[in-house]
Every structure is written in C-alpha cells, then in structure tokens.
Amino acid sequence: MKARDARNSRVARTGDEKPELPGVWRAYGALLQYLRKRSGMNQQQLGDAIGYSLEQVASVEQGRRPAKAAFTVAADRVLNADGALEALQDEVDRAKLPRFFRNFALFEAEAVSRFSYDPLLVPGLLQTEAYARALFAGHCPPLNEEIIDQHTEARLSRQKLLSRMPLAELSFIIGEEALRNPVGDRELMREQWQHLLDVGALRNVEIQVMPAACGFHSGLNGPFVVLETGEHQHLGYIESQEVGCVVHDPAEVSASGLRYGKLRSQALNSTESARLIERLVGET
C-alpha cells in the first residue's frame, strides 16, 4: 500500500511491500532476452559464453538485478547487438543511485562545468571505491550488501565526468575536516588522499582545501553544487540527510555562485592544497 507525503512528494511505503524495481532494468532485461532468443541461445549458454552463471543471466533478464558494465560489453559482443545494450548502460547505472539523487545525476552527466563545496566528506566524484563503500556500509539504517554494491558502482560510474569528452570544467572545495576525518583505516585514507592528488593533476580539475582554521565563511550553512548544463542553463543542488533538491530559480543559483566565488578566494589555492594533502600522505 502506498501513501503520498504532501511535504516532499515522496511515495511512502507501508507494510512489507517490496520497492518497485527501476523500469530501465526491466527494459534492459527484455532487450537482453530478445537478443538472446534471436541468437538461438538459452540462458545457460549465454552465461557460459560471457562468464556469468545461469542465475545471474536470469536475474538480469527479469530486471531483478542490474547489469554491470563488463556483463553488458560481453553480452553485446556475443549477441551481435551492435551496441544496443551498451547504449543503455549509463541509464542502468544511474538507476542504482539513491532515488533522491537521480534527477540531479541526469544534469550532472551532461554538465559543461560543475563547482562544489563539501565541508565534511570527500565529494562522490573524487572518492575511491574503498572510501565510497565505507560510507555506504555505515549507512543508518543499514543497507544490505547488494544495495551497497549497487550504490558504490553507481557512484564510481558518475566519475566518467572527470574524463568525458568534451572535458567539463570541474572545481572542488573540500573542508580540511573532510580530509582528516578517518572514514576508514589509515591505508584507506592514504589511498584516498593519493587519489585526490592524482585527480587534481588533471587539467580540467581544480581541488582546493578550506582550512579548518579559516573561521567564519559562507559555506558554513552546508554543502552545495553549482552546475552549468550543455544548454548553458545554470542550476544548483543542495542535499542533506538523503533529501536532495535541484535549484532552478535564477536568483538562488546566482546567490550560490557568489558564495562559491567567495569560498574560492578564502580556500587554499590548488598548489597549497596539494601540499597539504601531500603532508597527510606523508604522515601515514
């Protein structure tokens, strides 16, 4: 049974009813089944040909489990699909994201510029797999392992934006507290810090650190993103406690842009930020 929460237009579920599976998983599964039958193969034969079990193939065809990229590449090749399955992979991955984030993810994937301020955590686009998995594993209430896997895969898939052509202009301001917060053990954090240095060396990426001793600044109200779409529309995004909001109002987006410009002037520059991160790596 479903009830509508008028305050945030979410569908609230009651009882023990299972959540509805994303439609794109079912569409992908139906296409996979059609291509398999067209090739004269049963599920076991397809699984043997691409290195997956009968149960895995059946689950994907029924839309109960999303296909991973490796599954799609192999199935597309074996079934002579001419890229039909691969064309759906980004949508399949996007549906693995938490529901509240999916609308913004559509804009993010096509962004020509994206500027973000993250005071407490390393932003998702810059996270290592281990760091992302540790965050999802610590979710409250707890997530099952399958959901943790799906959310982690989806977050890593978003990182295509870092190298997508044409290149997007990307700027990140990260609070020093986020870098020093031990999300995992020292080795996990060392890997994360080194990853920040590697990504920060890309010519379309700028990473700045907001020092913990900066005092009052305009980012103390929380994280936010300012984004420009391929159609040169400017959007904002704010998120807290699994509630996300895409901001379309030009005045509000403009205010966020002004705040971000102020934050850039108050944060360490990219060279100073890299030196701080290098010191953290050296301390491990």
Automatic annotation (TrEMBL):
Family matches, as SMART domains: HTH_XRE
Superkingdom, natural source: Bacteria
Pfam families reported for this sequence: DUF5753 (PF19054), HTH_31 (PF13560)
Coiled-coil portions: none
Signal peptide: none
Ranges for domain HTH cro/C1-type: 32-65
SUPFAM superfamilies attached to this UniProt entry: lambda repressor-like DNA-binding domains
InterPro entries: Cro/C1-type_HTH, DUF5753, Lambda_DNA-bd_dom_sf
Protein name: Helix-turn-helix transcriptional regulator
Organism, as annotated: Streptomyces thermogriseus
